[in-house]
Amino acid sequence: METPLAKAWKTYQDTTGHRFFDYTHLVIILGVYELLGFFTKPYNPESWAYFGSDLWYKLAYLVPMHTLLFSLFIMAYYGYLVVLDLRGIKDRKEKAKDAEALKKDKNFKPKPKDAYKPNWYYFGYIVIEGFVYGTLMMIFMPEVIFAIVNAILPDLKIPLPIDQSRSLHDYLTSLVLNMAMAFGGGAYEELIFRGFIFTGIIFLGKKLPFFKDMNPEMAPLGIFTAQYPKYKGGERKVWITVLFAAVVYSVSHYLPPGGDPFNLYTFVYRIVFGVVMYLIVSRRKFSIAMWAHIWYDLWYFLFT
Q: What is the reported pLDDT for 292?
């Protein structure tokens, strides 16, 4: 017999499975990131350069308006889809699906799309679930990874906190700037490293014999719909793919300009972090992964 707690958890999972929750959280998180970044500029006009420690910003500052250009586009696109859902209007992909069905069957009658009525308190539950994951990661990961790396390399020295060790430390940070970095990392790093890069690897891998027994199927990965490896076989190769994407994520933090000094501890730490975030995205939701990343970063800036 299903317990009330198990039933409530299943209802929560089913309800928040709608794309509305991923899209709205993404729009809000990016909006907060850009707003906080804007407030740092009067005090530190070069504060945007400090964000250059991560690959997503290194690419962004090569274009006018820096990340704001990308953020506005993403917010407008996914915000538009949210409005369509709330008003019960089909988007381009949904209309194309109806048109394809009509070609196959002339008697096909597209069903009208019902306006989505979200349970708003579940919106807050996603933030809380991300808080739990991010907090647990902050509590346990440093000690566990230090023990592993220290066993390989005795007398390991932990690098200085972020504000002292990065080559961009001359750009003074503040609470507002650190919060901006947390929200920006939560959105863009998950979009790029758990979204574009991982799904891109799977897309390219479809053409290689190595990936054949992974049995990829069309399935959602956060806000993406891509060929995603289901666990029907080839689990070892799935994890090889996950580890490769995590290594790419870790290496990106050391690339010039403005990358961190290389350290074995931080290198391994970020690989493990990338794997954990993949598990959250694939087993739960993209929005929860973003919030877990944000809360983790906020704890990091607060305590280090």
A: 96
- Cβ-contact 250, 277 below 8 angstroms: no
Which pLDDT band holds residue 169 (cuts at 50, 70, 90)?
very low
In Å, what is the CA distance from 67 to each residue of 62, 74, 162, 188, 295? 10, 11, 21, 9, 21
For 144, which DSSP code?
Answer: H
**Is it the case that residue 72 has pLDDT exceeding 80?**
yes
Q: What residues are paired with 38 via a beta bridge?
A: none
Evaluate the CA torsion angle 121, 86, 199, 59 in order and state its sign.
Answer: negative
Which residue, 125, 136, 129, is CA-closest to 273?
136
Q: Is 107 left (phi over 0), alpha (psi -120 to 50) or beta?
A: alpha
Question: Over 237-265, what HEC string results?
Answer: HHHHHHHHHHHHHHHHCCCCCCCCCCCHH
Distance, in Å, from the CA atom of 105 to the CA atom of 95, rounded to the nearest integer, reads 15
Please indicate, yes or no, whether the overall pTM of this predicted structure exceeds 0.70: yes
Give how far Cα 246 sits from Cα of 137, 173, 231, 273, Å: 16, 27, 19, 8
The token duo for 44 is 């530190």
How many secondary structure helices (H) and strands (E) does the chain include?
14, 2
User: Would you state the structure tokens that stand for residue 226, as one six-digit string?
Assistant: 């891509």
User: Distance between CA atoms of 134 and 211, rounded to whole angstroms?
Assistant: 32
DSSP state of 229: E
More confident residue, 33 or 2: 33
Residue bearing the bigger pLDDT, 1 or 248: 248
Task: Count CA atoms within 13 Å of residue 283 on its CB side.
Answer: 9
With cut-offs at 50, 70 and 90, classify the pLDDT of residue 166.
very low
